[in-house]
Amino acid sequence: MRLDVQPWGATLAELVDAARAAEAAGAGVAWTPELHRSAPVVAAAIAAGTQTIGVGTGIALAFARSAMLTALTALDLDELSGGRFRLGLGTGVARLNQDWHGADFEKPVPRLRDTVAIIRAVEAGGDPIAHEGVRSIAVRGWRRPYPAARPQIPIYLAAVGPAMLRLTAAIADGWISHELCPPDDLRTRIRPVLTGSRKLDIVASACCSVDADPAIARRRAANVVGFYASVRSYADMFGAAGFGPVTTAANAALRAGRPADDLGDLIPDEMVDAYTIAGTPAHCAARITEYDGLADAIKLSPPSYGLPADQVREAQKSLLELVGSRP
């Protein structure tokens, strides 16, 4: 199983240095999220600053940009990286699209299907370029005059619900999981939908907090779980696992004015253990093996929510040492 990373940096320069360290440690792909930074811009910085590691958006928001602009960005990134780029797309939730980006969120499944179809049409070139659906495109008199690095760029979709998982299985080259993806959920709910006649690159994700003191490792990871525990969209998932009272407390704390990334004190150790990989190097290495046979890769990210930069740096250093120690 491939070990991928989601590098962190307080500056872009530091982030690129972290990607280089991941490359030296033997990581397969450096994925760039889209929350506090632009995923394509960070991917471009990593592509320019590395030589061999794969580079992917993990994930870029599919509806905050036009499908054609997303296609052109992907083509440029693939050229810049020498054919190392992977386009990871996700819908995001309704509030993020509508309130943060002024983007419509109607019919997300057919809209994402159309987005991928338009990207493929632009990538294929030709004149005219046309697609009709929930989202359409009609381009005449335009042709990209530059050679593509590859005939086709791998597209990964972030899917959580059953309809989006079925869409991923039907049209994507890969799947990239939510940050909280326990092995049992992958085994019982996700793989049965994704595993079919088409071969997908299945990428699980996990916050991985490594420290010689397991208590420190857990507490660093707790804010990640607390962030999601405060969001109503995840209440059913946590409730089914027996953590309903925790999500109620976290949501109440958020409404009372507590920062969403500083709720770790409300999260018990057993909940951290259920949704992250946290502990000593030996413990974390053993937890990673639980994904063998279930995923083609696991994307590991250091804990960063609500932590001072020096603690994130220390956590990332320990994580990359773990990646480098894997046979």
Question: What do these coordinates show?
Answer:
With 327 residues, the chain is of the alpha/beta class. The protein has one domain: TIM Barrel (Alpha-Beta Barrel). It is built from 13 helices and twelve strands. Helix 6 links the parallel strand 8 and strand 9. Helix 1 runs parallel beside helix 13, helix 2 packs parallel to helix 3 and helix 3 packs across helix 5. It is globular and about 60 Å long. 45% of the residues are buried. The model has no long low-confidence stretch (mean pLDDT 96).
SSE series: EHEHEEHEHHEEEHEHEHHHHEHEH
Outline type: globular
CATH topology name: TIM Barrel
CATH class, anyone? Answer: Alpha Beta
Number of strands: 12
Range of helix content: 40-55%
Kindly report how far apart the N and C termini lie: 11 Å
Q: What is the CATH architecture annotation?
A: Alpha-Beta Barrel
In the predicted model, the low-confidence regions spanning at least 5 consecutive residues are none
The Rg value, from CA coordinates, equals 20 Å
CATH superfamily label? Luciferase-like domain
Largest sheet: 10 strands, parallel
**The number of domains:** 1
Amount of beta strand: 15-25%
Mean pLDDT over all positions: 96
Tally the helices: what do you get? 13
Structural class: alpha/beta
